[in-house]
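Lab manual, section 2.4: Encoding a predicted structure.

Procedure: take the sequence of the chain (202 residues), apply the prediction step described in section 2.3, and record the output as structure tokens. A sample record is shown.
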Amino acid sequence: MKEKYSLKDFQTVDGMNFIERAKHFQLYIDQLDKDYHQPYYTQSITGIDSKMVAIDNYTQKKQEITAFVSNDYLGMSKNPETISAGIEAIKKYGTGACAAPIIGGFLDIHRQLEIKLANFLCCEDASIFSSGFGANAGVLSALMGKNDIALTDSFIHASVYDGLHETNVKSIGHNDLKYLEMTLKTVTLIPQHYYKYNFLST
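Recorded output:
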């Protein structure tokens, strides 16, 4: 038993079934609790922002914290213009599209946004997704097929693997440039009639 565990200790655990792996991972969770450093499922009572009031997981007391977990980098979710536009959109369209874009959940404001983004980025066109997960799953599955190879960093987001489930994936150790170089050299030796393209994701 180690004195300190990290997530890397549980990245690859051989010789255990899933129940044994779960019990093994509990060592890491117990360590977090022992150190009063359980970072998961922190409850915010003021929304997610750089400054917010959260409930401490151990004392259950409210405390003001500085947060670095939000994807709202520009603070647009709290911008008065954004809030006002959101309210007007809800009044007109309801609380959601209620269908996948391809079968009817594609609104005029969605297309307007795509056109504006394409013009802003000087591109021919643009396609928007509701999340980064959706973008990875949708775009990568369209680009990569069974005749392609994807070289991926072992710490990439899980949604990338969802997008690559129909292709050949070779996982590279996190930031392991030497192994990456060796793998790239190996890939170039594979006859081209086996694979059409090479794709590198880091």
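Check your result against the sample. The chain has a mean pLDDT of 85.
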